[in-house]
Amino acid sequence: MPAITGQQYIERIDALQTYISIDGEVVTGKVSEHPAFKGVMQSQARLFDLQNGQALLDKMTYVSPTSNHRVGMSFLQVLTGEDLVKRRIAAREWALSTHGLMGRSPDYMNTTLMALASAADYLKDKPNCFPEHLVKFYEHARENDLTMTHTFIEPQVNRKKFYFEDEEVIIAAKIVAKTSEGLVIKGARLLATQGGITDELLVISTNGYDEGKGFAFSIPSNTKGLKFLCRQSFVGGESTFDYPLSSRFEEMDAIVVFDDVIVPWERVFYYENLEVANTFMNISGFQAYGLHQVLSRQIAKTEFILGVVQSIVDTINIGDYQHVQQKVVDIIVALETMKALLLKSEIEATRDTFGFIRPDHPTLQVAIHVFPKVYPTFTEIIQLLGASGLMSIPSEKAFVADDGDLEHYLQSFKDGGKDRVKKFRLAWDLTMSSFGTRQTLYERFFFGDPVRLASVLYQTYNREQYIGRVEKFLKYDCS
Q1: Residue 191, preceding bond cis, omega within 30 degrees?
Q2: Could you tell me if 321 and 311 are in contact, meaning their C-beta atoms sit under 8 angstroms apart?
Q3: Secondary structure (DSSP) of 115-138
Q4: What would the pLDDT profile of 282-309 be if each residue is shown by its tens digit?
Q5: Residue 325 contacts by C-beta under 8 Å, 6 or more apart in sequence?
Q6: What is the DSSP code (8-state) at residue 198?
Q7: What are the tens digits of pLDDT across the range 367-397?
């Protein structure tokens, strides 16, 4: 089938009847009508409708090499530099639709799967590895426009580098049996964003010291024994006046519990191979391709934040203050830096050992090192500029009942009371609500621990040529 529509997405997820628990209650009926998921599923549906619209069809889709159907551009394998540009343009269109606030829009996981499938040859002839399963699932996901969530990490029981659980107490998901049907998985994993509202769960364990915890597979979200245990919802309410962002873009995060889940052999990509578990994610180009998509989204998000900040500046007329100008410029500098890094990654792209073009990884490592540091400053800037205005934000109901006092006393240099509050409620939901603070934490750790990321960059960035320049200079005799 071709790239799906929004209605098809909603109907498909509703039909799964996935096990989802939230606030101690199992979701029954249509998940798309549940208050915690309604808004984000509607926003996700709009993304699918966007890719089917005639105006963006050529930007958002391409012709499948196997079916001749139009499929999502985020599944496109990168054979040329032009393919990278096509992927960036498509990622930007979806990011603009969500203002970069949905970190797990479908193109992120589509990109992940594409990257893994592009390196499937690495798995050939290795023990307990099935590259043909990976490629087949990639093609299945592409041709059916599947949505996916994922779990890459284990529960935070013990953060020691090498931690072995008691054999009788299983917490982190592990293989407990192998049958003719497939692997049997028991335990839990974190942190499935959009858990329960996707077609599939992609599981990749990089636990490279315990064979029982090293595996990769994908299974339908409604697989028997699979449970999504959700955190408290950060949707403040359905009013887009009161909660302009959380009512639309609250993605939800879930603990994934495997209660003796059987993973069919045809869905297993690898298992019980320490070398592969330790290396495949890096060798696959997951980081390079993933960061290329992530940076496209973060740029759109930064543009939105700049718009929010300038709206505050204009509505209360503080643009003449130099400290205000400096704060706005700090956001502009971050924005243009990230845009430059994204383009540089494409300009310096190279062909990998599997024959595909990858964006320059070191460049993207720098970008992902920058953004987690600057994003919390964006939150601080909005709070500093908004000040008490971020607390003087009556609800929509208050304005409905207003006899004129709120409209009069909350007016600003540029706006009437209601319009001014609308802007400040947007800024509040972005930075101070449960949804907003989750956004800050999310961006801090989006691609992992910033300290670990810095260590990886230190260890992998090629500095030999610069050392050589210094040594050559010191040996130069000018006498």
Answers
A1: yes
A2: no
A3: HHHHTGGGGTT-TTB-HHHHHHHH
A4: 999 999 999 999 999 999 999 999 999 9
A5: 319
A6: S
A7: 999 999 999 999 999 999 999 999 999 999 9
